[in-house]
């Protein structure tokens, strides 16, 4: 189920400017291979907030094959760097190839490992035993050179783990930092009673509801939930 009428989404998307060719190809390949990448309408939200926020350091959790990371890098300011985290080996193989083709490849770092370990490494509280680094441009770089402060964080990984990631994310996010979480409305099912959700999906339903409650009730965040794409939570750290 789509949370916005498909005709309306199609119309809004038709107003979007075309992506550069390498991104169009990457988007097409990802969709053909059923890789779950960010939707067109959500891309517009990211581009808007990049322009508004002008970040210096971006962190993405959930690289998949590198589409949204390449998109963010394409539209980020000139003096910005992006670090992206992915754990699935098959995805990492594709991400390495694709990120090397990005126009701003030299401003991208791919952290390979489970996000919970990677976030702890970025926070200087974890060991790098299960996490490694790839620089798409071939630059020699070490994990310890990556910053522990990200003024733009995009979360797009396993939804059931968002609550576990949040404490680490909050430490990496400075005051005034922007934090965007994708796929929070779960095709609208999040608004339904858990009793109408199939037993198989109840855990994720409960976890996402807890996560959204936390984002909207913490006193150090201001959060709005946009019914765009599959739902995006946009948060700012206020203290
Ligand atoms: C929705 S896809 C990301 C799509 C990507 N952001 C894009 O739009 O091009 C989610 C990705 O998160 C990865 N992922 C899920 N849980 C993870 C974890 N605990 N640590 C690292 N990556 C994870 C999955 O392997 C998957 O590739």
TrEMBL record:
A Pfam family of this chain: Methyltransf_3
Name recorded for this polypeptide: tRNA 5-hydroxyuridine methyltransferase
Residues annotated to bind S-adenosyl-L-methionine: 38, 68, 86, 114-115, 156
Keyword Magnesium in record: yes
EC number from the UniProt entry: 2.1.1.-
Family, as annotated: Belongs to the class I-like SAM-binding methyltransferase superfamily. Cation-dependent O-methyltransferase family.
Alphabetic keyword roster: Magnesium, Metal-binding, Methyltransferase, S-adenosyl-L-methionine, Transferase, tRNA processing
Residues holding Mg(2+): 156, 182-183
Record field: catalytic activity: 5-hydroxyuridine(34) in tRNA + S-adenosyl-L-methionine = 5-methoxyuridine(34) in tRNA + S-adenosyl-L-homocysteine + H(+)
Recorded GO MF terms: magnesium ion binding; O-methyltransferase activity; S-adenosylmethionine-dependent methyltransferase activity; tRNA (uridine) methyltransferase activity
Classification via Gene3D superfamilies: Vaccinia Virus protein VP39
GO BP terms, alphabetized: tRNA methylation
InterPro entries: Cation-dep_OMT, SAM-dependent_MTases_sf, SAM_O-MeTrfase, TrmR_methyltr
UniProt cross-references to CDD domains, sorted A to Z: AdoMet_MTases (cd02440)
Quaternary structure and interacting proteins, as annotated: Homodimer.
Function: Catalyzes the methylation of 5-hydroxyuridine (ho5U) to form 5-methoxyuridine (mo5U) at position 34 in tRNAs.
Entries under SUPFAM superfamilies matching the protein: S-adenosyl-L-methionine-dependent methyltransferases
Record field: transmembrane: none
Name of the top EC class for this enzyme: transferase
Species name: Lachnoclostridium phytofermentans (strain ATCC 700394 / DSM 18823 / ISDg)
């Amino acid at each position: 189920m789509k949370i916005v009428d498909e005709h309306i989404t199609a119309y809004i998307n038709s107003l979007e400017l075309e992506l550069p060719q390498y991104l169009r190809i990457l988007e097409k390949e990802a969709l053909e291979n059923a890789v779950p990448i960010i939707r067109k309408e959500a891309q517009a939200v990211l581009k808007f907030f990049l322009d508004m926020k002008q970040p210096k350091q971006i962190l993405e959790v959930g690289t998949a094959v590198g589409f949204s990371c390449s998109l963010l890098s394409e539209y980020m300011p000139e003096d910005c760097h992006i670090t992206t985290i992915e754990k699935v080996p098959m995805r990492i193989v594709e991400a390495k190839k694709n990120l090397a083709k990005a126009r701003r490849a030299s401003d991208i770092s791919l952290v390979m490992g489970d996000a919970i370990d990677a976030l702890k490494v970025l926070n200087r509280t974890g060991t790098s035993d299960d996490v490694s680094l790839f620089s798409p441009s071939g630059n020699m770089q070490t994990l310890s050179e990556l910053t522990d402060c990200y003024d733009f964080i995009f979360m797009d990984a396993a939804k059931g783990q968002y609550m576990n990631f949040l404490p680490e994310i909050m430490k990496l996010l400075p005051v005034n930092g922007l934090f965007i979480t994708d796929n929070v409305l779960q095709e609208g099912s999040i608004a339904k009673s858990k009793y109408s959700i199939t037993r198989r999906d109840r855990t994720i339903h409960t976890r996402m509801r807890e996560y959204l409650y936390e984002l909207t009730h913490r006193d150090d965040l201001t959060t709005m939930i946009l019914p765009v794409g599959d739902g995006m939570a946009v948060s700012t750290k206020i203290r």
